Amino acid sequence: MRRRRTVYIAGQRWKVEWDARIPGAYGICDYETRTIKLAAGMDTAELVDTILHEFIHARWPDLDETAVADMAETCSQFLDAAGLLKADD
Questions:
Q1: φ and ψ at 40, to 5 degrees?
Q2: Distance separating alpha carbons of residues 86 and 71, to the nearest angstrom
Q3: Does a structural domain hold residue 87?
Q4: Is residue 88 part of a domain?
Q5: Which domain holds residue 10?
Q6: Angle at 30 between CA 29 and CA 32, to 5 degrees
Q7: N or C: which end of the chain has fewer CB within 10 A?
Q8: Is 24 within 8 Å of 5 (Cβ atoms)?
Q9: 47-74 mean pLDDT
Q10: Residue 33 carries which DSSP code?
Q11: What H or E segment, with its residue span, contains residue 38?
Q12: Can you say whether the dihedral through the CA atoms of 54, 56, 62, 67 is positive or negative?
């Protein structure tokens, strides 16, 4: 997945960068540059949770961190229950 992509979130163009160097974090949502950066080295479940988390930040910037984390975790659990996530290890 080491690539850069463009996605549209709420009608705005966002860049997504995989394997970014992000000290102390799995992902970052940069509103100024409309870029979502995802750290290297995550297993599938962590990556999905981080993608959901940063997408929610991008889509609903007024949500507080607790609400974002709760929504991302709930979505990840749903995907896991549906058998769509597999741990890499």
A1: -80, 160
A2: 20
A3: no
A4: no
A5: 4-81
A6: 150
A7: C
A8: no
A9: 96
A10: T
A11: strand 35-39
A12: negative
In the chain, the amino acid numbered 6 is: T
Q: Are strands 4-9 and 12-20 parallel, antiparallel or unpaired?
A: antiparallel
| Cβ–Cβ under 8 Å, residues 73 and 42 | no
Is this structure's pTM higher than 0.90?
no
Two tokens at 3?
């690539």
pLDDT tens digits, 6-52:
999 999 999 999 877 888 999 999 999 999 999 988 988 899 999 99
Residue 84 banded pLDDT, cuts 50, 70, 90: confident
- Nearest Cα neighbor of 3 from 13, 15, 18 is 18
- Domain count for the chain, please give it: 1
Q: Which two tokens stand for residue 72?
A: 């991302």
Which residue from 45, 47, 86, 51 is spatially nearest to 71, judged by alpha carbons?
Answer: 51
